[in-house]
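About this split. The held-out portion is used to measure sequence recovery: a designer receives only the structure tokens and must propose an amino acid at every position. Recovery is the fraction of positions where the proposal matches the reference. Here is one held-out target exactly as it appears in the evaluation file.
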């Protein structure tokens, strides 16, 4: 991955990444320092569940 999403307090964001992988909406993108990093996780076939 080219980037990992972080909160404004510089904590790694895992729940939002999980939601993106599962195709769910992320509600709190305003709390992220780099919300565009979530886009890298969407649509990766290897991460999709069958």
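Reference sequence for scoring:
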């Amino acid at each position: 991955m080219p980037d990992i999403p972080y909160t404004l307090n510089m904590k790694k964001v895992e729940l939002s990444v999980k939601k993106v992988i599962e195709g769910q909406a992320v509600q709190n993108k305003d709390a992220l320092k780099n919300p565009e990093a979530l886009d890298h996780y969407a649509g990766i076939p290897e991460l999709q569940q069958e």
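Annotator remark: The longest helix spans residues 15-21.
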